[in-house]
Amino acid sequence: MSLLKTESLSKRFGELLAVDGVSFEVNEGEIYGLLGPNGAGKTTTISMACGLLKADGGDVWINGSRFWSRPQEARQLMGVVPQDLALYEELSGRENLEFWGKVAGMSSREAKIRAVELLESLSLAERAGELVSKYSGGMKRRINLGCALMHRPKLILLDEPTVGIDPQARNKILEYIRELVKEGSGILYTTHYLEEAETLCDRIGIIDKGRLLTEGTLSELQKGVGHDQLFVLEGAFKDEVPEAWGDFSKSFRIIQRTDTQMTVATEGNGDPAEGLKKLLALPVRLQNVTLKRPSLNDAFLKLTGRDLRE
Fold first, then answer.
1. Nearest 5°: phi and psi at 231?
2. Is the pLDDT of residue 8 over 60?
3. pTM for the full model?
4. Structural domain that includes position 284
């Protein structure tokens, strides 16, 4: 069942078209990853999905109803974890959870009980009474997540929830997110970390310059790059003209090229051994040839012509 559906969302800030016709769905029991570099439009999209911003065009549907026809009901169904921490540092971890629980409509008793559950689940029970100002970055990220989960939302919107924290803290948050999905939650997860999208998300949408370029499972996106194999060539390519290499253009498609490295995909369903044989016969001196499976970054390269991390 679809918990969140966006239809042709667009948003402009002056001359900048920050989001340009973005459409996708998030279903129960899945993590939909919105992958793109900083400034791609991820946060603006999440802000429109949760009602913090009104779209200039398009629609948002929450659990089958238009968001702006029943905004209060829609907000009650979702929990939002912003990229910027929404915490009161002069309060303790427990007090922050209880405060946000009451904001979400819980009674004091309900908020206290739920806060204890979450502190235990997030491995913060022993530090519950300490001021948030004394927490590490990873602990603050976990409490920030807990605040959005106090009212047990079915739909959870996570905007770069692991940015700026150490690998151990990141792993704890990702583990907890996986548990939420097992319980039936639907999650929209924005990130610019390739490894998170590859290991965490059931489906992935690649966004850049405000446009959703493609979406699918990891396997579907990999196949979209060039069957299931890529060759990475190392050599001196600065002054080379690949179009002049005989039948090269009929057999291979260039995914990325620098002065010293070239990544190519085979056209059609060629045998890797046959592809390697053709590459070694090219009229250019190769220092090394490596065979690899396509990555999300390769998919991004194919779509945009640049590296995701640029």
1. -110, 130
2. yes
3. 0.84
4. 229-292
